[in-house]
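$ run holo --ligand "heme C" --emit tokens
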Amino acid sequence: MRLALAAALLLALPAAAQDGRALFEQRCASCHAVAAGAEEMAGPNLHGVLGRRVGGDPGFDYSPALQAAGRAGERWDTARLIRFLDDPEEMYPGVWMGANGLPAAAERRAVVEFLRGGREGALPVAQP
Ligand code: HEC
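-- output --
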């Protein structure tokens, strides 16, 4: 009981407890640019991904799994993105991002918050 309460409190920690930008740089930026118009890397550009169609970067050649989801009309919102990052392969079998999600819920929330604000492309990640 007390343990469950402690776990609930931990999960309720605000996203600010984690630095979404730093997490993105460590865990995502090796494959994803986020600045507007930046060239695709191993993965699609994530600029403005919140609200965008799944598989919606016109400059990226997606797997059949993400193409099918986009054709089915799926869009990235906060809940979908958080679920995807929990286990990309489980959500979209055959996705090319495999095991590169974020198992910790607080980290997922922080990165999604960062991506939401990342629309202006302020992330100073060196492009190749
Ligand atoms: C090793 C490279 C790699 C890493 C690391 C990686 N990704 Fe990806 N990601 C990809 C690839 C490749 C795709 C395209 C997958 C496909 O087409 O099936 C993708 C797709 C995505 C998509 C779908 C985009 C769209 O346009 O529909 C999102 C969102 C995403 N990644 C977020 C992240 C986040 C957030 C992180 C960090 C926690 C991350 N990725 C880490 C390679 C990576």
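-- notes --
The domain at 17-120 is CATH 1.10.760.10 (Cytochrome Bc1 Complex; Chain D, domain 2).
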